[in-house]
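JOB MANIFEST
job_type = single_chain_structure
chain_count = 1
residues = 103
[input]
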Amino acid sequence: MQFSEGSVSIFYKLEGDDCTLTLSPRRAEQLRSGEVPLRLTFVPGEDTVCIVGTGGLRGGYRIHTDVFNCIFGRAGVSARIEYFAGDDREHVKLDIRAIASRR
């Protein structure tokens, strides 16, 4: 976990892929690098996109962030994101909690 002015980035692995989730009080972005990279952007009350792939093999779908709550401080971060994905508007709920390691 890395703190910077007004945001926090969480680094983790998901199914072998490197991922970064960057959270601030007004926006979040998830980057997943691997065989098929993903970039999801969440802004409360707005339509954004999930971009899948790179270069000429890139596509995506619309996401609408309905709920976005993010609280962070030196001890860690807690966030709740609810969004609707794609044309079928699949409802997705994310609860994220990360605690800063003490070194």
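[summary]
DSSP finds no helices and nine strands in the chain.
The chain has a mean pLDDT of 91.
exit_status = 0
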